[in-house]
């Protein structure tokens, strides 16, 4: 079209096209900035921010409506329905039942025998087989995830949460009917599968898509109710081996990785052999093998799973319900709104099922037992991810043991119709001698597996010497795009609010860098940790807007992001505490209690770092509270008489005056029964962190009054002190001689955190303290005493509450040696100590003169431009300073192109000409701001520590820029770098 135009017209057309593109880009930029500054600047929008960042990073693939995929026999499927059918045929083929008469006949025979034995409840339908209560259902409704796509029945979590009492009763009756006779509605066994393209995969291949199954939310609720009972039985009977940490309450992948790293380091630190190596006495060598099951969840045979569950002596009523829930499952695939034909899935655990993870841990429990029989071999499992660590003082022996473990794995897989992908199995030699890694090879399922320089296990990349250099490089490659995308949400004049930025930076960037860091960070070399520090500094610059030359200490402090070296002691101490809290037969507990004299100076593990950190904190001898091995069964229905109230009306808000809060509390308490046992409890902790104490006053219906004081621990949070006070008061009531049967019990406390923890339910408690409090509540309510736990506002003049506070402070002075400390409190104490040591070590600077050893508060009330000025000025590198611009070569003069001298003429303040316009000069000494300083502080001479106030610094910076602006035209070049 443009070929017939004259040159002048063509040029005008090109210019108009460029102008239109520029206008479009400008409008897009302006719209995006407005969206970030308004829509995303809300506390409830953090999830949206993370989702946008993931999409910008490429972690959330965009839809491809016109993309063809390879269907059956290599034919391309172009239409959406054809693609949907290709997907569903592929998925159904994977989850087909594999028939093997030699293995199926014994399974069926044993199943008949076990079924004939009947249920452990003896058909009484009690305990685990009892009907579900309304409390159980409501507790599981509360933990259902919101804003999730519904299944084929189009019922979502929000519908369930807004049901009224009558509808809830009908729903509970339906679930109990299915539970009683193990008949599962067909709608609960239907799913709609949405294929999602995996990152970096070929979009034409069916296997490049991850199937996301949308199932009935009513079925998910029923699964959660059954799963809570199943998990309680499994944990109480110790049916899941300690080596399996996947999908277990209070356990994490970090524990297995930490045990692995510390075990290897302990073996290396044994004495070097003077002659022939001796097993168990001289330095050891290790062979680490990570196995990969092919479609582990999709290939589980339902009858074999039923057999394993009955072998574990689970109630037959429960096993029958689970078996019927898994049988005759059908699904369709949806592609761009088009549905495929329905196909049956005759094997495997349903994708997206709540029960699936727990069922798999029970399914694989006997695998751990088989691997334990292999000499010199440790097992590490997280769900279906399985690894073995074989050790010996000779590498050849370690290799032989690794081969025995591999053969054991293959035999177990063949026996239970599972498949080990030998081509995906990894092997790594862990040894201080390089020649041990040469020619290492084992056979796994007929495939030769050779030792490699690196091995990726549970998201962490291991190397031969456990320096974690490759892992740190991988983390940097992963996080670098995230930091770049975070910077796209910031500008000089627009941005997310600083509180939002800090939250996103800590979760999106620091969270990724600290994944399982307690296991590997203490062992990583300084050079490799520096790679992590660089990315943390980049995230801090995105948060604060500070320049690249800003020193590390003020930069990280202004951003509220602690360096990795500061976080390391707290992470290591947490691992030490976790190991100490586990039962004595847990392998991680044994590793944590072991003492091996260090022989290698460059080998440092979490155990040594953690113990040193505890010594700094003064907590080396503090007893750690053990992790509960048994919890209160969810089918215990005696808690119906225990109620919670966490409100006293509008007048109880924290911002209300004391007399308003006191009046609201009294109005609420007046409606409670006058004849009752009244408990007023309170807790106290020095600074909210140490010397805890709990106190309570008890008034019986007879008028008798008792006072209780109890120590809560040398290291203690305020919430834990409150719980200790409540526990002591309940013990006093249970041991009292007074007759309180049938009389109500009213418990008043000013700790909402403690009440919310208890309100989650008896079976949801994860600490000994929470469990013991609920045991007391259930015991008292079983006597016929209804119990009400009432929140009251603190420090508003309630006489009983003030007396409980006095008792708690008195109790904090009692001997604390007998009181244990939980792992969370211990970790926080070490983190505070490490942060304090870091702040004490800040180098002398203008920033340290201002903050001393305090961390700056977020600048939530300032716009982005003012906040950047505050951060840069306090950090000592201001991008609008003439001295700084000359230093980086942006303000050259004929006699000096660039220098760092404050006496240079180019660095002189253009407002007063009395010295270089450094941050100290601008904020403390520049004569042009004398009036502003007098107006804002009452003195023309202010102290550096007064500059902690961000609004004061922002006002001074704005005043200086107003004086400087008329003079800036006399200077050449841009105003900032």
Automatic annotation (TrEMBL):
Domain RNase H type-1: residue ranges: 673-813
Glycoprotein found in the keyword field: no
Pfam families (UniProt xref): RNase_H, RVT_1
Keywords carried by this UniProt record: Nucleotidyltransferase, RNA-directed DNA polymerase, Transferase
GO molecular function: nucleic acid binding; RNA-directed DNA polymerase activity; RNA-DNA hybrid ribonuclease activity
UniProt key word Isomerase: no
CDD domains the UniProt entry points to: Rnase_HI_RT_non_LTR (cd09276), RT_nLTR_like (cd01650)
GO cellular component: DNA polymerase complex
Residues annotated as domain Reverse transcriptase: 177-462
PANTHER family (alphabetical): ENDO/EXONUCLEASE/PHOSPHATASE DOMAIN-CONTAINING PROTEIN, ENDONUCLEASE_EXONUCLEASE_PHOSPHATASE DOMAIN-CONTAINING PROTEIN
UniProt-recorded name of the protein: Putative RNA-directed DNA polymerase from transposon BS
Naturally occurring in which organism (per UniProt): Amphibalanus amphitrite (Striped barnacle)
């Amino acid at each position: 079209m443009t070929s017939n135009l004259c040159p002048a017209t063509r040029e005008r057309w090109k210019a108009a096209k460029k102008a239109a593109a520029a206008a479009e880009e400008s409008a897009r930029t302006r719209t995006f900035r407005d969206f970030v500054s308004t829509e995303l600047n809300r506390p409830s929008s953090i999830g949206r921010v993370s989702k946008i960042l993931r999409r910008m990073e490429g972690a959330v693939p965009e839809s491809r409506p016109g993309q063809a995929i390879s269907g059956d026999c290599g034919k391309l499927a172009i239409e959406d329905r054809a693609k949907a059918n290709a997907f569903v045929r592929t998925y159904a083929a994977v989850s087909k039942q594999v028939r093997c008469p030699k293995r199926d006949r014994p399974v069926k025979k044993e199943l008949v025998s076990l079924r004939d034995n009947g249920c452990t409840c003896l058909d009484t339908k009690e305990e685990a087989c009892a009907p579900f209560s309304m409390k159980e259902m409501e507790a599981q409704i509360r933990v259902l995830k919101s804003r999730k796509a519904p299944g084929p029945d189009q019922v979502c979590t929000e519908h369930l949460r807004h049901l009224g009492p009558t509808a809830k009763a009908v729903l509970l009756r339906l679930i109990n009917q299915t539970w009683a006779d193990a008949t599962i509605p067909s709608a609960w066994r239907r799913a709609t599968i949405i294929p999602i393209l995996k990152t970096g995969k070929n979009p034409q291949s069916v296997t490049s898509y991850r199937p996301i199954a949308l199932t009935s939310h009513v079925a998910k609720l029923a699964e959660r109710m059954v799963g809570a009972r199943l998990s309680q039985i499994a944990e109480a009977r110790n049916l899941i081996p300690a080596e399996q940490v996947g999908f277990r309450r209070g356990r994490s992948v970090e524990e297995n990785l930490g045990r692995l790293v510390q075990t290897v380091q302990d073996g290396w630190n044994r004495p070097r052999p003077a002659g022939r190596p001796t097993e168990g006495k001289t330095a050891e060598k290790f062979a680490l093998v990570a196995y990969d099951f092919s479609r582990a969840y999709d290939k589980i045979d339902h009858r074999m799973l039923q057999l394993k569950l009955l072998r574990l002596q689970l109630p037959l009523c429960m096993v029958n319900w689970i078996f019927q829930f898994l049988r005759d499952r059908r699904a369709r695939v949806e592609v761009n709104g088009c549905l495929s034909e329905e196909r049956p899935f005759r094997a495997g655990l349903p994708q997206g099922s709540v029960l699936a993870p727990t069922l798999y841990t029970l399914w694989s429990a006997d695998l751990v037992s088989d691997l334990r029989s292999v000499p010199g071999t440790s097992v590490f499992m997280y769900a279906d991810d399985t690894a073995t660590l074989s050790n010996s003082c000779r590498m050849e022996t370690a290799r032989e043991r690794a081969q025995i473990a591999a053969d054991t794995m293959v035999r177990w897989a063949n026996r239970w119709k599972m498949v080990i992908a030998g081509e995906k199995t990894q092997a790594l030699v862990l040894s201080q001698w390089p020649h041990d890694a040469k020619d290492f090879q084992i056979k796994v399922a007929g495939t030769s597996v050779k030792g490699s320089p690196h091995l990726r296990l549970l998201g962490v990349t291991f190397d031969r010497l456990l320096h974690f250099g490759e892992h740190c490089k991988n983390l940097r490659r992963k996080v670098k795009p995230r930091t770049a995308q975070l910077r796209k949400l910031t500008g000089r004049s627009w941005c997310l609010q600083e509180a939002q930025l800090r939250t996103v930076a800590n979760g999106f960037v620091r969270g990724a860098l600290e994944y399982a860091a307690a296991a590997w960070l203490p062992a990583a070399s300084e050079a490799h940790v520096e790679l992590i520090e660089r990315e943390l500094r980049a995230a801090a610059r995105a948060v604060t807007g500070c320049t690249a030359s800003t020193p590390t200490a003020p930069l990280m402090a202004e951003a509220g992001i602690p360096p990795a070296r500061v976080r390391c002691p707290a992470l290591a101490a947490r691992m030490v505490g976790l190991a100490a809290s586990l039962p004595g037969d847990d392998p991680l507990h044994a590793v944590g209690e072991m003492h091996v004299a260090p022989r290698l100076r460059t080998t440092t593990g979490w155990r040594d770092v953690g113990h040193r950190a505890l010594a700094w904190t003064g907590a080396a001898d503090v007893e750690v509270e053990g992790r509960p091995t048994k919890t209160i069964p969810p089918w215990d229905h005696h808690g119906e008489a225990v109620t919670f109230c966490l409100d006293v009306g509008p007048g109880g808000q924290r911002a209300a005056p004391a007399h308003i809060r006191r009046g609201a509390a009294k109005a609420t308490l007046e409606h409670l029964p006058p004849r009752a046992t009244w408990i007023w409890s309170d807790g106290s902790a020095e600074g909210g962190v140490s010397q805890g104490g709990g106190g309570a006053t008890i008034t019986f219906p007879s008028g008798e009054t008792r006072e209780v004081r109890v120590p809560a621990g040398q290291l203690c949070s305020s919430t834990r002190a409150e719980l200790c006070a409540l526990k002591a008061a309940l013990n006093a009531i249970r041991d009292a001689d007074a007759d309180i049967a049938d009389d109500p019990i009213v418990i008043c406390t000013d700790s909402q955190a403690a009440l919310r923890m208890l309100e989650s339910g008896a079976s949801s408690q994860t600490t000994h303290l929470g469990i013991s409090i609920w045991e007391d509540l259930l015991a008292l309510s079983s006597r016929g005493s209804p119990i009400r736990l009432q929140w009251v506002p603190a420090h508003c003049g309630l006489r009983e509450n003030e007396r409980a506070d006095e008792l708690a402070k008195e109790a904090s002075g009692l001997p604390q040696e007998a009181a244990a400390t939980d792992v969370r409190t211990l970790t926080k104490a070490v983190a505070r100590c490490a942060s304090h040591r870091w702040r004490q070590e800040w180098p002398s600077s203008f920033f340290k003169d201002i903050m001393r050893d305090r961390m700056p508060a977020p600048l939530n009330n300032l716009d982005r431009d003012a906040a950047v000025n505050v951060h840069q000025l306090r950090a000592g590198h201001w991008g609008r300073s003439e001295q700084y611009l000359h230093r980086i070569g942006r303000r050259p003069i004929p006699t000096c192109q660039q220098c760092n001298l404050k006496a240079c003429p180019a660095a002189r303040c253009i407002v007063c000409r009395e010295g270089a316009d450094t941050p100290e000069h601008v904020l403390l000494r520049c004569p042009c701001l004398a009036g502003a300083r007098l107006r804002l502080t009452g003195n023309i001479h202010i102290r550096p520590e007064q500059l902690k106030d961000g609004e004061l610094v922002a006002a001074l910076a704005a005043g200086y820029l107003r004086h400087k602006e008329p003079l800036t035209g006399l200077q050449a070049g841009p105003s900032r770098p």
